[in-house]
């Protein structure tokens, strides 16, 4: 599992789960976090009586983070050091050159280059123009954002590679997927729609991580007969992670990604999500709905006659081939 940073809400959820008697492994699975992250969080932020309380834990973590972010005060509270850094920045020295020169002259590390960057961005933004790379604080050791983005793209198959037969809607088995977002943006409904029949599937996500979405997707499609699992075109959002190849292996489908901000490339899914909004309008807090409510809405939509199907229902059209429901 990837590292996911704790928020106030996730800390409260963790406290509720622990209070309900769940162990750390179960909490890890439910929250979609690594077990070691759960352990560090509980050990580092529990109260003196050994009990983990979400609100208290969040305050403790934020206090510690605030102290960690005050490194720039080392420069701010030393007029000579601040003047030196400012002068050298205006000479277009890099923070690394400034820190290195100080160490050479003084014989000890006076300040590190990360602290100088923090000082510039937090306290003296007018000095940013003297940096060689003004868009980023400093170059990341593991590659630039562009390179990381290209690495991610290389792991997915884009819609331009999808066979043209998918556009024809001439067969059952080509799917499109996305999520519908609640007001709080943390809980969503995962949706998949079959292009020819308009048959839809939905499932509520109380916690949204790429790992959880991947597992839920596998569960959904393993209930569908193999002849109806041909292709899947999904949104390019981070909630779908980099699991396309694993999903292909485990479901037998060819998985493609729509281009960013090209929702029309998943027209069937976008239309179905719009119909789903009749039941779950924008502004609704998804914490107030249950999986039962989602399944009720899905049944209503799949049993609603469609003009383009000659007023057959999506379920009738889809079942011409067969599904285990």
Blueprint of the fold:
Blueprint: H1 8-19, H2 24-31, H3 35-45, H4 54-68, H5 73-76, H6 79-90, H7 95-106, H8 113-123, H9 145-153, H10 165-168, E1 174-181, E2 188-194, E3 200-205, H11 210-222, E4 231-234, H12 244-251, E5 254-257, H13 267-276, H14 291-302, H15 314-318
Parallel strand pairs: 1-4, 4-5
Antiparallel strand pairs: 1-2, 2-3
In short:
The chain has helices spanning 8-19, 24-31, 35-45, 54-68, 73-76, 79-90, 95-106, 113-123, 145-153, 165-168, 210-222, 244-251, 267-276, 291-302, 314-318, and strands at 174-181, 188-194, 200-205, 231-234, 254-257. It is an alpha/beta fold and 325 residues long. The chain folds into 3 domains: 8-70; 78-130, no CATH class; 159-318, Nucleotidyltransferase, domain 5, CATH 3.30.420.10.
